[in-house]
Amino acid sequence: MKRVAILGVGLIGGSLALSMKDKDVEIIGFDIYEENLQKALALSVIDKGTVDLAEAVKEADFIFLSSPVGKLFELISFLRYTSLKPGAIISDTGSTKGSIFEWTRDFQKKNVYFIGGHPMAGSHKTGIEAAHDRLFENAYYVLTPDSSIPQEVVQSLRDLLTCTKARIVVLDPAEHDRVVGAISHFPHIIAATLVKQVGEYNEHSPWYHRLAAGGFRDITRIASSNPIMWRDILLHNRKVMLELAEDWRNVFDEIINFVKEADADKIETFFREARDFRDQLPERKKGAIAPLYDLYIDVPDIPGIIGKITTLLGEKDISITNIRIMEIREDIMGVLLTTFRNEEDMEKARVVLTEEGYRVYSRE
Ligand SMILES: NC(=O)C1=CN([C@@H]2O[C@H](COP(=O)(O)OP(=O)(O)OC[C@H]3O[C@@H](n4cnc5c(N)ncnc54)[C@H](O)[C@@H]3O)[C@@H](O)[C@H]2O)C=CC1
Ligand SMILES: O=C(O)C(=O)Cc1ccc(O)cc1
């Protein structure tokens, strides 16, 4: 049986541990707060818990570091000088990848391997109570192995992580920080600045607070995230944040100038271009937070098929919340992704469609 050590049993460490529940692994948790370990044991998230770091890692085949980014250096410094199992694979879950990559390149001298990792799903909630076995389902899970790490070592980490049902991808750490900086880190600055701006106005009129709804809530949801976590992320992706701020200022000035000049066409084009890009973003098939009930249907030809399937299901009172053409194969075979409101509708649809001769399945 393989041993997995999770260092930091919060939302992400706890969710990783839960996703491994059906695997033949023993999970040992370490945290700086004993009460977190007690909760994790009570919730059966981990098999054992300890506040002794050396004890947690000494027999482990896999070690996951899932503390805030600012604490990773401390943990890595400890691992560098403590006794570890030869061949052990260490990974982290931190939201930035460049700095950790630089700190860990020499681990192979110790006959252990470090492969940076970032499961790209989460929540603005923190702590073990928010952990969920399906948190990473369908999300990207980025790995940033050094090119000197043998492929079979990377593969054994990938094999273990299949239990998360995430889409595992390999990226260069600098590219990770640039891209994730733009789509995840920098938006937290924007969200927080908007909230602070309105918070200050609210000092003078409570109506800001009362009327804030809809769009304001949507765009500022992430401002409710953990301040310590986001402090650390910004500090570890500073260069990228400063570059993005410059670019953002340029785009911001552009629209403000159109407003100043009352240029209706340019304002409209600005919004239209933003909408077009936004509407093309891939929808994430949700895992734990709001499970989607998806069925994939192989269909012989596309024209007319969507109407045929919606009619067929509509006649049985089965409603589809979304239908999307996933791919058209060269032999004119297509795959439709149909989403249902609940499991019952999905299962009814599976029966009806199978009876009609369609090949229906749950995963790509
Ligand atoms: N929250 C999110 O949505 C996501 C977070 N991440 C990353 O995963 C990591 C963990 O985040 P969360 O689980 O959300 O935070 P969390 O606050 O829920 O959990 C962190 C845990 O680490 C423990 N901890 C603090 N210092 C420690 C140390 N020196 N040694 C061991 N444990 C320590 C804390 O007591 C806590 O139990 C962070 O690096 C974050 O950047 C990655 C993807 C998503
Ligand atoms: O939607 C949200 O609340 C998030 O922003 C989740 C998140 C937070 C940090 C990450 O590194 C990846 C995902």
Helix content bin: 40-55%
Q: How many beta-strand elements?
A: 12
Total of helices? 14
Shape: globular
| Beta-strand share of residues | 15-25%
Order of helices and strands, N to C? EHEHEHEHEHEEHEHHHHHHEHEEHE
Number of domains: 3
The CATH H-level superfamily of the largest domain is NAD(P)-binding Rossmann-like Domain
Largest sheet: 8 strands, mixed
CATH class of the largest domain: Alpha Beta
The CATH topology of the largest domain corresponds to Rossmann fold
Structural class: alpha/beta
The assigned CATH architecture of the largest domain is 3-Layer(aba) Sandwich
With strands numbered from the N-terminus, the spatial order across the biggest sheet is 3-2-1-4-5-6-7-8
Q: What is the residue-averaged pLDDT?
A: 91
Radius of gyration: 24 Å
Q: Could you tell me how far the N terminus lies from the C terminus, measured between alpha carbons in angstroms? A: 30 Å
Low-confidence stretches: none
Small-molecule components bound: 1,4-dihydronicotinamide adenine dinucleotide, 3-(4-hydroxy-phenyl)pyruvic acid
Short description:
The chain is α/β, with parallel strands linked by helices. It has helices at residues 11-19, 34-42, 53-57, 72-81, 98-103, 151-161, 173-202, 207-211, 214-220, 227-236, 238-260, 264-279, 305-315, 343-355; strands at 2-7, 25-30, 48-50, 62-65, 89-92, 113-119, 140-144, 167-170, 293-299, 320-328, 334-340, 359-361.
Jot down its keywords.
single chain, 364 residues, alpha/beta, Rossmann fold, 6-phosphogluconate dehydrogenase C-terminal fold, Alpha-Beta Plaits, 3 domains, eight-stranded mixed β-sheet, four-stranded antiparallel β-sheet, 14 helices, 45% helix, globular, binds 1,4-dihydronicotinamide adenine dinucleotide, binds 3-(4-hydroxy-phenyl)pyruvic acid, NAD, prephenate dehydrogenase (NAD+) activity
